[in-house]
Amino acid sequence: MPIRTIVRLTPAKPKAGENFKLQVVAQHPNEPGTRKDAEGKLIPAKYINLVEVYFEGEKVAEARPGPSTSANPLYGFMFKAEKVGTFTVKLKDTDGDTGEGTVKLELA
Amino acid sequence: MNRRAFLRTTGVALGAVALAGLPVRAQGLEGEDLANLEKALQAVLGKGFKDLTPSNLIKLTMPAIAESGANVPAEVEVNLPSNQVKAIHLFADKNPTPHLVAFMPMKALPYYATRVRLAETSAVRAVVETADGKLLLASASTRVTVGGCG
Fold it and tell me: Bridge partners of B144?
C-alpha cells in the first residue's frame, strides 16, 4: 500500500537567496517493534527507514530514520532558494512499501 | 593544501582543543546512560563517546518536558558550511534502539527536524560527522511522562 506523503514549503514562496524549510509528513504507524497489542503480543516492526529528497531529478538530501521515529512522522529539511523547480520526496519502509510526494518551488 | 583549506582545518582544530578541556560528564544530564549509548555509537560510527568533542556549533532543540514520549519534536541546526557536514546523527541514551536517525545533507543546509519516540526520560545527543572526519557533539535532555516505545 502506498504511504500517503504530504510535502510543503515554509514560506510557500521564498525570495531568491532566502532559506526555506521543506517539511514532509507521512501517514504511517512507524511501529518500532517494541510495542505490544491488547493481547500482550509484540507488534512487528514496520517503520520508514529511507527518506530521499530530489530536486529536478537530482538527489539533494537523504535521511535514514531508525525505529524510534514517531507515528505519522515529520521530516524537516532546509534549503537555500536558488531557482524554481520541483522537489520530489521518496519514502520507503522496512516492508518495502513506498510513498512519494512533490512540491513546486516558486520564487517570490 | 591551499591556504584557505589550511585555515579552515586549523580553525576547527583550535576550536576542538579549546572545547576538549571541558569535562564531558560535568553536564549532569538527566536520563544519561552511557553504556547503552556507547554500543550504538560503536555500531553506527565505529567510535566511542570519548571520541566525541562537545561543540557549540551544534544547536539541538528538544522540549524540557514531553507529556508523551510517542511524539517528541527534535531539531538540529549546525553552524558550519554545508560542504563541511557529512552527516548528522541523533541518539537517545535510554531507547532500546538509541540511534534515532542519520541525515546526509548533500545539497541541503545542515539542518534536520523530526519527531521521535522516547522510551523514557533520556539524554538526547546530536552527533555531527564533519568532512574532515571529526565528531562533534551536542546534548539535551527531555523528561518523559509517558513512554513512547512500550
Answer: B66
